[in-house]
Every structure is written in C-alpha cells, then in structure tokens.
C-alpha cells in the first residue's frame, strides 16, 4: 500500500474550530497564504467531512492530497472517527485504503 505523496513546499495545517475547518497554508513566502481548507461538522463524536476546497492557483499540485493526508493523520492521533460527504475524500479513501480504519 503506497503512502500519499505530499507537497514539498513549506506549509502548515491549522484548525479553525470556530468555523469547523482545517486550513492549509503555504508558508514559503514572507507571509502565510491560505491555500485551502477541509470543512466538517460534528455529529456526536464523529467529524463529517463536507468539502475540501483548494484555491485554483494551487490546484492540481498535490495541496488537497496533502491537506487530507495531514488532517486524517491528526484525526487518527486524536482517536477521531470520520464520515465523508466529500467526493475528494471518498476518492482519496479508495486510493489509500489504509485510512479507511477512521471511517465511522
């Protein structure tokens, strides 16, 4: 089972719990640039992933894959289960079945 390839550009992942989002930012320049986010809602102890959105200037470069990979790794570390309503995450789970253990 292959692991997802993530971007090599310096980046960070930040949770905006108030807006129920996991953000990915490009930190290679003088100031962080918001590249995109994964939006979720809480249903009991499950995070339902609603959308994965990436700025068009960063699309098709691996940023969505990086965001989902790192967000799922954090969820796994915290023992959080997920359900997906996001077509990108659904495709990701098909391609990388090792993450299916997180599904509620």
From TrEMBL:
It comes from Brevibacterium salitolerans. InterPro entries: Acyl_CoA_acyltransferase, Gcn5-rel_NAT, GNAT_YJDJ. PROSITE patterns: GNAT_YJDJ (PS51729). SUPFAM superfamilies: Acyl-CoA N-acyltransferases (Nat) (SSF55729). Residues 14-104 form the N-acetyltransferase domain. This is N-acetyltransferase domain-containing protein.
